[in-house]
Structures are given as structure tokens and as C-alpha cells.
């Protein structure tokens, strides 16, 4: 689909005036399918085919223009729009774009895919969902069951006047099953990977197998939702908290990932997504967490949702540590943000992670694969070390202030720990804290064989708004003396 | 550069051509439908009163649906803008979808097709060139007023259209702008302002900028840090919009009510009621949202959601056609997500000018942020204060507040806790731009409440 685009783009770019310092084109072709079976009834299958390109021009300022018209004339019109915006911004921009370093990398990236979802038929895929949906039932207290499968295959070409040429190809697969139960005036929801997320990884049919989707997820959510409707409310007191990987995803995302976005630190998001309690001065010495906390930006992590070879400005992606032994080392920021920080006197050594939600949005600093590195404990050891505590699974409520500091998160399912042993299941578990101090209470980190590779398809940020895929791989982690509370019902 | 009909599908002719090409008689299906969403947008981001990003987006997406008996399949395609090529791609996609109908099972809840209907709205606005906005912000906010402005301007035409093979044809085009900006004093302390509409007036924008700049010095005072506890508070219309929007997240959908996952189940079961002065409806009659849904259903002018604090006779639910078929009730012209798009809370009797005097001592909450349910079944909502919230004493703004987390029961807050609503409802168009510019809105007065629970 994108193989003919480069020649058309170069012809269109040739019409730019000679004053244009730089141009680039990022073209996207994406095919997706969403399938859903609810209460054993298959809903209408939904496909999507998306094609378009974003062009960038630097001439005085910088302008972007996106179009779904990929003809030479369409691309030329987009270049004209972008050029006009670049000129309108000359002398009025937050940074001198002429001084910003740009990559001219060339290369390819492709997701590791064993069996693309397209090797199965539509009836097969709907059959899998019927199986899982049925397996999530079997009890009159279960009043709603829902199994879904979302598959996206995406191709991206980025070329630039500097000679940059990168081609990337991904397949993303997200299976999910959710059950709702009602008994004794209590309604509870349990899901396989979050009501808004699912278990999301790069890959094809093998993602379903890694999730255990057809093997055990239906019966598990059915069993656990029934446990929840019969459970007592979560108690309200301070105790140790063990967050399982599917809740660590949210904890990492909100209170490490977003605060470390360099454009947020530079103030770009203050009108919408917010600012950050992290400042430029903190990098290199600020103690973000306990010595057990090690956080990596790892765009090469096999299967993880936001793995890529190059960011959306064509800069090669490399693994880097953002937090080492609790110390804050570097932010999440691409070349433009790094240049802006440099102009302010800060050489931060950030990472290439400037990304966009699609062809119709300009790239900004995002999380990609942001992971907590494994420690040396088994889950059993963490539980044994806990006199009074709670093990929480799967996020269902999230809220944090605009500086990414005061947070409150709720989970679907939790189990108390008493005297070093797992005890009763409780419903509506919540906890709250402050990012700046919460990570310093980290007292246990699961070892490598406890790590789960997760993430979310729905990270929102930016003006205009962009929902983007991010990955979070993490072991379970134990935090000491956390403010835990239950619901009102 | 000026905004015009650069996008082919922003005019009715190209869509009509697609309809002619795709909606002819075909015995292999009972119905084919087309739903178009197109826009031609300027997006301008500012930071420190300088341009951060300037983007022009021309996009058009068409959802093609085929139905036969109790089976449906659909596909959404980005259109290139060349009607002949687009029609050919859509024909190929339609053939693929018709093939899928043989592979899927009947959906017993597939709703009947709506009766054929036609509608047309084509409102032309008056929008500035992007260059004008860039120059105005940089010149007035930056050079002249020396303000730390961070904000976002989104503008341009948006078209939605629907047509089906049974004779329905709807066209909706509006031209809007929405400029939200903050003037920052320091840290997280800012005055937030919105200027939105259909006819841009540079003098009006400048006046709002000047007015906001005049309020920034109020933020110079030392911020007050509150202890967790319960407080008397005034919520601005912006803060009320956040709270009502959260109620709309599962609260009113028919499916969420029937599966027991709605946040308003206590209201449904008669276990709780809101204040008698609380009248909430979905009001499509005003605003810029289309009068039809993606499935071609006509929206009614009004759907009562809460009357005098209780559910109205109709149940106060938003019933998509599929849920309506499943639960055997009448559909009422909403999309499949069953979320409100034009909430309106009826005004009260408190004079706008007397709000702070009526508050006397407590919080003036200008903005709330990042709301979510901490206990959906109990309708307990958590979130943060944001921007220019103030401590008030004797009806006077005394000091800005450090941001605080709240966690409160909405039935208490808008039940016995609701002391009054202001007499001046404010219409606020949605500024959401996820995927596309949204056309919804919320209309609400300010509110005076007792016992607002701050927790952290």
C-alpha cells in the first residue's frame, strides 16, 4: 500500500519553495477488526481501513498537514498547508526549529508475529469468542458476559529530505473477557485484563495463547466475579499492598510514565493533560523511589505493545534506564524536547519516543514500553513478608492530579494477607498516595519469572487529543504502609 | 491560508455521489447504509504564548453497513477525496461485507431499520485564518500582556451525513471554533478561559484575554493548604460539567441500567433521590450536534433523565436501537454507546452575582479534573481540584487553594447537600478531539453545596 507513496511524496515535496529547510512525510496504512460476543450472541463484526499521511515542513517555523488524499496532488496540497503554517509561525515558536537535530536514519522494524490473525477465518474467530463467553457463565448470578477480540495490522513509512527512510510494520492483538454478577444487592465486574484494556501485546493468534484466553480466562473471571459478589467490602486502614502486574501497569503509567514526559515538564500540556511534579533540575540525582526501583524504556522488548524500531520522527529507538536504584536518570522526550531542554541549559540524555496516534496527529512525547525491572523475590516470599496487607489485581478506577502526584486507584479484585498468608477476598479495593513518596515505600519486587508483559491501547494525551498504545512489563511489587480503603456500598 | 471547502466531503455533492454509487437496488441485502464524518481542521497549540505545534488536518471517514435479515457487518474507511476512486474501494468493501453475512450468525437483537427520513442543516460560520490566530496570541498575550499562555485552538468545518438504501438522507455541517487557554501565574495556578462559537470576533477574543489577564494577580496570594474534611463549596459551570459528565459515564445507558452496572442504580431502585430542584435532560434541540445517529435514527429534541431528583416516567435512560430490541423497550435516538452528548441541567434561583455571598465561607471550585468512580455502585466520585480554585471568606476570594482530592457520594452532594443552583446556565461545547472534533455540549448552572468531602 505504501510502496508507491515515496515517489509521489518526493514529487510533491519538490514543489516547496527553496526556503523550506526540511520536509518529512509519515504515511500510515492500518487494517483492523473488532469482534464481540455478548451473552453468547455475536454482534456485528466491525472492520476499519485507515490510510493517510502527515507531512512536516520547516521554514522559519514548523507546520504539519495531514491528508487522506495520497495522490501527488493531495500530498502537494498538504505540503502547501504545512508550509503556510510554518511561515505563519516564523519568529513565534517555542523553539528555533532550524537548530533542532533531526535523524536521517534508514531501516526497518516488524513485530514478531508467529501466526497473523488473518490466517484464521472469521467463523473461527467468532467461535473462539463464543467458547470464552460461554465459559464465563454457568451461574444464574452472572448477569452479563462479554468476550472481545481486537486485531490491528499497521504499516508506517517515514521519509525525509535529510535522506531518512524507515519502514515499520506491526500487528497488535487484544483479547478480553468480562463478566458481571449480581447477588444480594451487590453487583461486581471481573475482567481478564481490565474493563477498558484487555490483555494487549504485539503478535497474532499466539497472543491469545500467551493470555491463556481460550484455555482458562473465561472460567477464571466467572469464578472470581462470583467470589466478589459474596465478599466483604475492603477494609479501610493502612497496610502493605502487593500490586499484581495488571495493576502495576496503571501505577507505572500514571505515576512514573506521565510525570517523566519531557513535553509535560516543559509545560506543553498544562492546558489539558497537566504538568509534572518532576522538574528539569531533578534528573541525575532525585530519589524517585527506593533502591529497589529500576525502570526502563525498552522499545525492543519482544511482544510488548509499544515496541518499535524508530519513533515517529524517524529517530532510532534504544533501550535506556530512566530510574536506576531509585534515582531519576532521564525523561521521556524526543529530539525536539531534548533540544528545548538543552536551550534551557539541561542536557538530559532523554530517549526517542516522539509518537503519534495516527496519520492525522502530529507526534509528541509519549510513553512507549515503560517497564519495572524484575527484582529477586517470589510472590510467595512477598506474601510471607506481609503481616497485614492486601494483594490487588486489575485496575478499574484511576484518578491523579494534574502534576501526577496525588493519586487514587481502584481495583477489580483483591485478597487480604494476614500473618503472611493469603486470606479472604474483598470487593471494591482502593488505595491512595502521592507519587513523590509512594515509590519510596517499595519494599519488594518480584523476580523475572513473575513478570507479565501488559499495557494499554488507550493512553490519552495531547491537543488535539491522541490515544496511543503503550506497553508496561512488570513483576508484582510490594509497598509498605499504604492508605487502603473500600467502597461505600 | 484560509479555511474553505478543501475537503471534498465537506460539501453535500460528493456524499450524494457516493450514495448514488453505493445505494442502488441490490437483492443480496436488505439495506446498505453510509455514515460520513469529515472535517477540515486547524489545530494550533501554544505554550508560553508562542506556537508549539500548528497542524492542518483534512480527513473523511465513511462507515459502510450492510444488513440482511438479522445479520449486519460494517466497515469504516478513510476516504481519499476522489469520489470515483472512493466509490470503487467502497464497492469492493461492500462485496467483502456481503460475503461476511454468510459467515456470521443471526443477531436476535438487530434492530429494525428506521423509517426513511431526510434532514439538512448547513450552518456557515465565520472563522479566522490560522495565521491571524497565531499572530494575535503571540502579539497580544505574549508581547503586549506578557502572559504565560498555554492553550489550544481548534477550528474548521465538520460534516456528518447519513444515507441508506431505504431512502433516508441526512446532511449536517457546522463551522465552529473552540479556543481554550490558561494564563499561568506559577506552578499549577492558572486562570482558564474558553472562547468558542461559530463566528470569530477578534475583539471579543482580545477582551476575554484581557479579562483573564486581569484575574491572574489573584493567584499571586499565598496558596492555602486545606485539611481533609467537609466543606461548603460553589462549583462553577465548568466544574459542574465535569461532575455531570461523570454521571453520564454509564449512568443513563439502558444496558448499564439493565445489567446493574449503572452508577445510578440506587436511583433506579428508589433507594436514593437527588434534590427536588435537580432536573437533567439530554437536549439535542440546542447546540451543534447532528439531529441523527450513525445508524440513521432521528434524535428527539429532548430526553428527560432526572425530573425533580427522581427518574421520570420514561425511566430516564438512553436507549440505543439494539439495547431497546434486547430489553423490549422503545429506542430513543441515541448511538450504541448510550452516553449523553448534550446534557442540560435546569437553572435554579440563586442569582449569579450572589453566589459568593451565598457561599460566605468555603471553596470556590473553578475546575475539577480527572474524575472517576471510586465506587460506581454507590455513585461515589473522586477527582481533583484544578487551576483557579479559591478559599472564600465573607463572600470574598481570599486565597488560591493547593490542589485537593475529593471523594464524595453524588447522591449526597446533589441530594441533601445541594443548597441551590444559579439562575444562569452556561452552554459549553465539547472540546474533545480524540480521533475527530466532537460536536456535543453540556449546559449547566453553577451550584452551591454543603459538605463537599476532601480526602487528600
Your description of this structure?
The complex is a heterodimer of chains A (489) and B (456). Chain A is an alpha+beta fold and 489 residues long. Chain A contains ten helices and 25 strands. In chain A, strands 1, 2, 3, 4, 5, 6, 7, 8 and 9 form a nine-stranded mixed sheet that branches. In chain A, helix 1 crosses helix 2, helix 3 packs parallel to helix 5 and helix 4 crosses helix 5. Chain A is globular, with a radius of gyration of 24 Å. Chain B is built from ten helices and 21 strands. In chain B, helix 1 packs across helix 2. Chain B is globular, with a radius of gyration of 24 Å.
What is the CA–CA distance across the termini of chain A? Answer: 54 Å
| Biggest interface, residues from each chain | A-B, 83 and 90 residues
Helix content of chain B: 10-25%
The stretches of 5 or more residues of chain A where confidence is low (pLDDT under 50) are: none
Question: In a nutshell, what does this entry contain?
Answer:
The complex is a heterodimer of chains A (489) and B (456). Chain A contains ten helices and 25 strands.
Detail the topology: elements first, then pairings:
The complex is a heterodimer of chains A (489) and B (456).
Chain A: H1 5-13, E1 22-38, E2 41-42, E3 46-59, E4 61-67, H2 72-89, E5 106-110, H3 122-135, E6 142-160, E7 165-183, E8 186-191, E9 201-202, H4 205-211, H5 213-229, E10 232-233, E11 237-243, H6 245-257, H7 262-265, E12 295-297, E13 320-324, E14 327-328, H8 335-343, E15 354-355, E16 364-365, E17 370-372, H9 379-384, E18 388-400, E19 406-418, E20 421-427, E21 430-434, H10 435-438, E22 442-445, E23 452-461, E24 466-474, E25 477-485
Parallel strand pairs in A: 5-7, 10-20, 11-18
Antiparallel strand pairs in A: 1-2, 1-3, 1-6, 3-4, 6-7, 7-8, 7-9, 11-25, 12-13, 12-17, 13-14, 15-16, 18-19, 19-20, 19-21, 21-25, 22-25, 23-24
Helix pairs in contact in A: 1-2, 3-5, 4-5
Chain B: H1 12-22, E1 31-47, E2 50-68, E3 71-78, H2 83-101, E4 118-122, H3 130-144, E5 148-164, E6 169-186, E7 189-197, H4 202-215, E8 229-235, H5 237-247, H6 254-258, H7 265-268, E9 280-283, E10 302-306, H8 321-327, E11 342-345, H9 355-359, E12 362-365, E13 367-375, E14 380-386, E15 390-393, E16 396-400, E17 405-409, H10 410-413, E18 418-421, E19 426-429, E20 441-444, E21 447-454
Parallel strand pairs in B: 4-6, 8-12, 11-20
Antiparallel strand pairs in B: 1-2, 1-5, 2-3, 5-6, 6-7, 8-21, 9-10, 9-11, 12-15, 13-14, 14-17, 15-16, 18-21, 19-20
Helix pairs in contact in B: 1-2
Amino acid at each position: 500500500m505504501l510502496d508507491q507513496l515515496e515517489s509521489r511524496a518526493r514529487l510533491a515535496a519538490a514543489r516547496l519553495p527553496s526556503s523550506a529547510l526540511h520536509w518529512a512525510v509519515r504515511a500510515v496504512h492500518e487494517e483492523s477488526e473488532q469482534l464481540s460476543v455478548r451473552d453468547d450472541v455475536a454482534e456485528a463484526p466491525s472492520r476499519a481501513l485507515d490510510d493517510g499521511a502527515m507531512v512536516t515542513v520547516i521554514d522559519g517555523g514548523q507546520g504539519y498537514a495531514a491528508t487522506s488524499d495520497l495522490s501527488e496532488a493531495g500530498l502537494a496540497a498538504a505540503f502547501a498547508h504545512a508550509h503556510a503554517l510554518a511561515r505563519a509561525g516564523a519568529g513565534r515558536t517555542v523553539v528555533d526549529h532550524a537548530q533542532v537535530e533531526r535523524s536521517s536514519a534508514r531501516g526497518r522494524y516488524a513485530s514478531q508475529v508467529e501466526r497473523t490473525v488473518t490466517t484464521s477465518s472469521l467463523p473461527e474467530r467468532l467461535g473462539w469468542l463464543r467458547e470464552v463467553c460461554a465459559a464465563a457463565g454457568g451461574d444464574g448470578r452472572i448477569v452479563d458476559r462479554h468476550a472481545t477480540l481486537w486485531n490491528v495490522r499497521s504499516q508506517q513509512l517515514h521519509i525525509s529530505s535529510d535522506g531518512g527512510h524507515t519502514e515499520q510494520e506491526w500487528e497488535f492483538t487484544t483479547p478480553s473477557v468480562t463478566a458481571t454478577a449480581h447477588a444480594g444487592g451487590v453487583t461486581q465486574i471481573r475482567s481478564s485484563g481490565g474493563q477498558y484494556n484487555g490483555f494487549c501485546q504485539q503478535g497474532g493468534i499466539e497472543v491469545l495463547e500467551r493470555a491463556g484466553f481460550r484455555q482458562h480466562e473465561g472460567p477464571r473471571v466467572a469464578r472470581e466475579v462470583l467470589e466478589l459478589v459474596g465478599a466483604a467490602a475492603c477494609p479501610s486502614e493502612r497496610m502493605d499492598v502487593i500490586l499484581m502486574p495488571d495493576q502495576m501497569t496503571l501505577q507505572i503509567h500514571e505515576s512514573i510514565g506521565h510525570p517523566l514526559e519531557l513535553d509535560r515538564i516543559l509545560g506543553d500540556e498544562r492546558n489539558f493533560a497537566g504538568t509534572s511534579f518532576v522538574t528539569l533540575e531533578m534528573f541525575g540525582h532525585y530519589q524517585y523511589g527506593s533502591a529497589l526501583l529500576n525502570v526502563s524504556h525498552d522499545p525492543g522488548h519482544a511482544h510488548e505493545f509499544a515496541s518499535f524500531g524508530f519513533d515517529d520522527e524517524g529517530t532510532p529507538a534504544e533501550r535506556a534506564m530512566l530510574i536506576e536504584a531509585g534515582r531519576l536518570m532521564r525523561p521521556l522526550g524526543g529530539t525536539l524536547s531534548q533540544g528545548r531542554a538543552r536551550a534551557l541549559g539541561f542536557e538530559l540524555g532523554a530517549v526517542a519516543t516522539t509518537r503519534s496516534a495516527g496519520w492525522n496527529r502530529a507526534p509528541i512525547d509519549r510513553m512507549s514500553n515503560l517497564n519495572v525491572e524484575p527484582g529477586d523475590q517470589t510472590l510467595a516470599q512477598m506474601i510471607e513478608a506481609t503481616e497485614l496487607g492486601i494483594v490487588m489485581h486489575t485496575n478499574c478506577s484511576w484518578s491523579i492530579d494534574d502534576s501526577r502526584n496525588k493519586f487514587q486507584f481502584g481495583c477489580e479484585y483483591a485478597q487480604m494477607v494476614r500473618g503472611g498468608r493469603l486470606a479472604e477476598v474483598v470487593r471494591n479495593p482502593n488505595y491512595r498516595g502521592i507519587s513523590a513518596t509512594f515509590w519510596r515505600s517499595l519494599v519488594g519486587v518480584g523476580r523475572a519469572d513473575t513478570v507479565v508483559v501488559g499495557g494499554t491501547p488507550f493512553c490519552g494525551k495531547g491537543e488535539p487529543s491522541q490515544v496511543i498504545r503503550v506497553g508496561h512489563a512488570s513483576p508484582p511489587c510490594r509497598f509498605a504502609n499504604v492508605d487502603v480503603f473500600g467502597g461505600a456500598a | 491560508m484560509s479555511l474553505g471547502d478543501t475537503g471534498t466531503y465537506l460539501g453535500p455533492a460528493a456524499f450524494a455521489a457516493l450514495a448514488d454509487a453505493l445505494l442502488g437496488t441490490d437483492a443480496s441485502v436488505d439495506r446498505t447504509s453510509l455514515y460520513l464524518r469529515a472535517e477540515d481542521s486547524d489545530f494550533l497549540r501554544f505554550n508560553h504564548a508562542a506556537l508549539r505545534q500548528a497542524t492542518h488536518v483534512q480527513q473523511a471517514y465513511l462507515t459502510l453497513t450492510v444488513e440482511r435479515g438479522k445479520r449486519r457487518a460494517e466497515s469504516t474507511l478513510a476516504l481519499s477525496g476522489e469520489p470515483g476512486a472512493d466509490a470503487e474501494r467502497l464497492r469492493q468493501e461492500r462485496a467483502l461485507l456481503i460475503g461476511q453475512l454468510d459467515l456470521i450468525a443471526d443477531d436476535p437483537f438487530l434492530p429494525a431499520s428506521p423509517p426513511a427520513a431526510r434532514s439538512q442543516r448547513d450552518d456557515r460560520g465565520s472563522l479566522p485564518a490560522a495565521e491571524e490566530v497565531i499572530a494575535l496570541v503571540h502579539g497580544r498575550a505574549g508581547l503586549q500582556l506578557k502572559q504565560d499562555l498555554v492553550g489550544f485552538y481548534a477550528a474548521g468545518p465538520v460534516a456528518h451525513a447519513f444515507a441508506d438504501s431505504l431512502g433516508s438522507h441526512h446532511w449536517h455541517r457546522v463551522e465552529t471554533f473552540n479556543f481554550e487557554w490558561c494564563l499561568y501565574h506559577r506552578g499549577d495556578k492558572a486562570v482558564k478561559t474558553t472562547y468558542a462559537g461559530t463566528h470569530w470576533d477578534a475583539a471579543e477574543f482580545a477582551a476575554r484575554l484581557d479579562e483573564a489577564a486581569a484575574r491572574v494577580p489573584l493567584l499571586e496570594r499565598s496558596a492555602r493548604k486545606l485539611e481533609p474534611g467537609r466543606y461548603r463549596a460553589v462549583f462553577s459551570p465548568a466544574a459542574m460539567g465535569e461532575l455531570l459528565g461523570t454521571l453520564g459515564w454509564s449512568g443513563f445507558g439502558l444496558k448499564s441500567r439493565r445489567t446493574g452496572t449503572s452508577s445510578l442504580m440506587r436511583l433506579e431502585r428508589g433507594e436514593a433521590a437527588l434534590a427536588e430542584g435537580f432536573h437533567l435532560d439530554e437536549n439535542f434541540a440546542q447546540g451543534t450536534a447532528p439531529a441523527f445517529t450513525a445508524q440513521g435514527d432521528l434524535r428527539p429534541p429532548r430526553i428527560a433523565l432526572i425530573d425533580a431528583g427522581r427518574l421520570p416516567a420514561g425511566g430516564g435512560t438512553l436507549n440505543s436501537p439494539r439495547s431497546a430490541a434486547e430489553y423490549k423497550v422503545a429506542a430513543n435516538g441515541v448511538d450504541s454507546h448510550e452516553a449523553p452528548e448534550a446534557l442540560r441541567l435546569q437553572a435554579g434561583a440563586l442569582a449569579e452575582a450572589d453566589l459568593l455571598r451565598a457561599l460566605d465561607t468555603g471553596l470556590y471550585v473553578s475546575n475539577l479534573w480527572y474524575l472517576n468512580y471510586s465506587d460506581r455502585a454507590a455513585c461515589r466520585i473522586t477527582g481533583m481540584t484544578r487551576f483557579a480554585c479559591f478559599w472564600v471568606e465573607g463572600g470574598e476570594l481570599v486565597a488560591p487553594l493547593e490542589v485537593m482530592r475529593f471523594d464524595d457520594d453524588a447522591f449526597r452532594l446533589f441530594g441533601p447537600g445541594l443548597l441551590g443552583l444559579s439562575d444562569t446556565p452556561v452552554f459549553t461545547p465539547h472540546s474533545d478531539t480524540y480521533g475527530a472534533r466532537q460536536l456535543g455540549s453540556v449546559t449547566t448552572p453553577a451550584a452551591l453545596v454543603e459538605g463537599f468531602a476532601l480526602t487528600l
